[in-house]
Design a protein that fits this description.
Rubrerythrin, domain 2; 2 domains; elongated
């Protein structure tokens, strides 16, 4: 039985907290709870309304940026992964046409 609880989207990484899947309304989640993907606080989540079956967000901003870089011929991106760019690094990892090259600092 579907309850049609509200969904909330992380404004940092687009993770969807779906009350139906979690079996818990977002308002009942502890204030100290953080996004399981990027660690953003509960306050970074915005309401997406009621769950509508299998509808979900298929892409995020990071994936669109990577698509544009690939369309311009970029083959490599250099950097150091961190909390603020994990969606970007993930999008590179999932795209076969561009590589992420880890740089080090000493």
């Amino acid at each position: 039985m579907v309850k049609y609880l509200s969904r909330f989207r992380c404004s940092v990484c687009n993770f969807i907290y779906d009350g139906d899947k979690e079996n818990k309304e977002f308002s009942k989640v502890l204030d100290s709870w953080t996004c399981p993907v990027c660690g953003a606080p509960k306050s970074a989540f915005v309401s997406e309304g009621v769950s509508k079956g299998n509808e979900n967000i298929s892409t995020n901003v990071a994936e669109k940026i990577i698509e544009q870089l690939v369309s311009f011929g970029v083959k490599h991106v250099f950097g150091i992964p961190g909390d603020s760019n994990l969606p970007f690094v993930n999008a590179i990892r999932e795209n076969d046409d561009i590589d992420f090259i880890l740089t080090r600092h000493e």
